[in-house]
Each structure stands twice: as structure tokens, then as C-alpha cells.
Amino acid sequence: MELGRILTEDELADAIEDCDVVLIEFDPLTKKVLERAKKLKVIASVRGGAHANVDVDEASHRGIPIFNVPGRNQDTVADFTIGMILALSRGIAKGNLLIKNREITDDKTYVENGFCVTDVNWVGSTPEKFAYLQYKGPTLAGKTLGLVGFGAIGRETAKRALAFGMKVLAYDPFVKESAISSDVKLVELSELMASSDFISIHLPVNKGTLGIVSAEMLSKMKKTAYLINTARAAVMNYDKLIEMLQKNEIAGAALDVYPVEPLPNNHALLELDNVVLTPHIGGCSMDPYTRSYDKLFTELKLYLEGGMPKKVYNPEFVNQ
């Protein structure tokens, strides 16, 4: 069978029809596929959220537990988040673009007092293109990072921010103050949005989080603040964010997720200079895959030997 692509429902149904166990990541394990997998005893999903491509209700109806790997890439996304903060606020992404687009290169060599000053600070560029003056971003030490969501990824991001000397605020209605480090302060969302120099979103999409970073909440941000979203687009009002960016009502945004992916060629975000955009790669790293498979194989072995892991994705099997 051809590799390197997602299988169709029919192809997957043919492939697993006689299987006892299926290990899956992106392929569509739908009701149609599960109806043909009469022998299937367990599903192992290499995802943090198995519902993305597995019909969880149908699996549960058929008595099939789903093992998954929550938090598999928490450190990977946390690293990426800090990278986005720096790339945005310090002009790293913009500087790279300016040079590669030949916007601040020059054919001349400028010599002053015997020194090639273009090797010092690119002062040969015209004033409006003098990057050293144009892209003076904030130092992170002493600034406040607000984390909207304080689960596994939020906590890893906090560790990194604290190492930079940042102050950290967090909003998460499911986390108790007694359960977190004294270095992190739990606050209401409105306070976080109004007080933070950087706001980073780390929420899953569910009934409680859908649109939670609303137009009203976004409007509370400082004009000097930056917003980073490496979580999901559905938790935030993108129309309001774009309007604020267009009017320079906030300093900028770094985005890895969008209401439509890939972005259409005429999308408003593509016209903005105060954004850094990446193609939903925040969780992309080689390390989580190794950890994921190791964990899944351990849990599969336990299950096939008659045990049951404590954490199973289907609610019907949790803590049985």
C-alpha cells in the first residue's frame, strides 16, 4: 500500500478488518471503518486528542478502549511559544524577511574612519531602513506573561518564562492556587488580559472555551502588548484581533493556528507587518513521537496482559 499520505475510509477499513489492535495518528477511524473492524479490541492513538480522527462514541459503543498520549508534546509547544515571543517582539522573523527580500541590503560599501561600518550596525542603510533603530523590542526580563490555560503546556511555558526573569499570570478555572508554584499567580481572565505584556493561549476547544478570548477580552489588552496563539483558533475572536492589529491597538501577534487552514491567499493577516505567522507547527518535533510510541507500547502490553491503564481517552473506561 502507498505510504506518505492519509488513507481513505475504504482503504483503512480494508487494512484493519482483521486486526485486534490499531495504532493510528491522522487516518480517519470513523464509524464506517469501525463497523468493519469486528475483531478490534483496542485503539492506540498517537495524538493528544484522539477525537480529531477517531469516532470516540462509536468506539465506546463497541467496547473498545482508546489509549492516547496527552501532553506528549508539552515541552515542544512550550519551546515554540517562547520562540514565537522572541521572533515577534525582537524582530527576528521580520529581520530575516527584510534581508531575504533585499529590503535592507545594498550594493555599496560604506567606509568611515577606515572601518567598514556596514559590519558594525548597517548604518549605510537609509534612516527609514536602519533596522537597529526600527526594531527595538522589549527585553523579556521584568515583563509579565499571561497564560490563558495552565495545563501541561501552560506549565512548561511558565517554567521557561520564569527562567527569562518574567512575571507569570495564569487563568484556568480548573486549577487551584494551592496546586501551582508560588512564582505563578492565578487571576481572572479580564485581569490577565489587561495586565500582561505578552498573552499566550494554551486552551483546548470545548463548550467552556469556545470563543472565550472574546472581542471584549481582547479590547482590554495594553497597546504595547503582544498576543501568541499556538493552541486553537476557535477559542479566540480573530476578526477582533485582526481589527486591532490593523489599527495598531496592540503591538503585534504571533499565530500558529487559524480559523481556516491553510490561510487563503487573500487573507487579511497576510497584509500585516505586525504579525508572525507559522503553519500550525507548534507541536512538530521528533522527540514527542519517540515518547508517544514508547508510552503506547507500554500501555498496550499492559492491556493485552489483562491490565488496564489508569488513563484512557473514552470516558466509559476511565478509572475502571
Structural description of this entry:
The chain folds into two domains: 93 residues, NAD(P)-binding Rossmann-like Domain (Rossmann fold, 3-Layer(aba) Sandwich); 186 residues, NAD(P)-binding Rossmann-like Domain (Rossmann fold). The protein contains eleven helices and twelve strands. Helix 4 packs across helix 7. The longest helix is centred in the last third of the chain and has 19 residues. The radius of gyration is 24 Å and the shape is globular.
Percent strand: 5-15%
Series of H and E elements = HEHEHEHHEEHEHEEHEHEHEEH
> Main sheet?
7 strands, parallel
Please give the number of β-strands: 12
SS field, number of helical segments: 11
Radius of gyration: 24 Å
| Strand arrangement across the biggest beta sheet | 8-7-6-9-10-11-12
The CATH homology group name of the largest domain: NAD(P)-binding Rossmann-like Domain
CATH fold annotation of the largest domain: Rossmann fold
The CATH architecture assignment of the largest domain turns out to be 3-Layer(aba) Sandwich
Please estimate the helix content.
25-40%
Distance linking N and C termini: 38 Å
- Find the structural class using helix and strand composition: alpha/beta
- What integer is the average pLDDT? 89
CATH class of the largest domain: Alpha Beta
Q: Which of globular, elongated, flat, extended, rod-shaped describes the shape?
A: globular
Poorly predicted ranges: none
What number of structural domains do the residues give?
2
